[in-house]
Amino acid sequence: MSRTAGRRRRGHGAEDTETGSRDDRKRRTRRALLDAALDLLEGERSFSSLSLREITRVAGITPAGFYRHFSGMEELGQALIEDSFESLHQMMRDARKDGLPPTHIIRASVAIFLDHVQSHRAHFRFIAKERYSGSSAVRLAIRKEVRLWVGEVAVDLSRFELLKRFSSEDLQMLAGMMINAVIAATELLLDAEPGDAAAVTRIYETVEKQMRLLVLGASLWDSSLTGGNATPRPA
User: Fold this and answer.
1) Which fold has domain 3-66?
2) What is the rounded distance in angstroms from the CA atom of residue 82 to the CA atom of residue 161?
3) Is the dihedral angle over the CA atoms 10, 13, 17, 21 positive or is it negative?
4) Chain centroid to CA 159: how far?
5) CA 126, CA 135: separation in Å to the nearest integer?
6) pLDDT tens digit string along 20-45?
7) Residue extents of the structural domains in the chain
8) How many Å apart are CA 41 and CA 77, to the nearest integer?
9) Which residues are bridge partners to 230 per DSSP?
10) Which of 14, 80, 148, 211 is the most buried (most CB within 10 A)?
């Protein structure tokens, strides 16, 4: 039985009768609404094509119950974005805690990220579809999260000895280029046929090469603190 069918079978009565504290029930209901929206977006549909009634029907919740969690569809969309990026931030926190291998850092970093994409396809498919074509509020929320992601990666990059001479502006620029590369790889990965292992391998290898080129360029770059300009170091 699918996740959607399971939620539909539980029905809105489950919201009222499940054991646990009121806060636990509220969290479960909110999670059911988010999961229902993600399930409905698994095909080619966009978030703007979804209706409140069909989301609540799939979640097994009354339409009136929806408004105990969200003021409307726009707020639900923003919550989906926060939820999607939170899984990414948690992955990055776990990677920092566990530590990257002393060798093949680029390969390991690429594999960790793209493996995460494959295990959270619904989240990343939603982001990819709504990044340019969603409502203005959803697009702005995605841009905000991407900026935060860039800032987080820039802080990580600043810890590398090679990049300690970089200005904060240049670290942000390098982080942005890296993230653009992995976002492009993410979209290719989501479009790849699930059983096409060769295509998936090519995507991993391509983004690894792109990262190596960026690091090679960074090794020749020297930030200048005069006027915010920077010049390449002699090869």
Assistant:
1) Arc Repressor Mutant, subunit A (1.10.10)
2) 32
3) positive
4) 23
5) 13
6) 688 888 999 999 999 999 999 887 78
7) 3-66, 73-232
8) 12
9) 223
10) 80
Quickly count: other Cβ atoms within 10 Å of residue 212's Cβ. Answer: 13
Tokens describing residue 66: 């929806």
Residue range 66-89: mean pLDDT, rounded: 92
The DSSP annotation for 160-218 comes to SGGGTTS-HHHHHHHHHHHHHHHHHHHHHHHHS-TT-HHHHHHHHHHHHHHHHHHHHHH
Per CATH, 3-66 and 73-232 having the same topology is answered no
Q: Which CATH number fits domain 73-232: 2.40.128.110, 3.40.190.10, 1.10.760.10, 1.10.357.10?
A: 1.10.357.10
Residue 213 above 80 pLDDT?
yes
* pLDDT level of residue 176 (50, 70, 90 thresholds): very high
d(CA 167, CA 175): 12
pLDDT of residue 154: 93
Cβ atoms of 47 and 125 closer than 8 Å:
no
| 2 pLDDT more than 70 | no
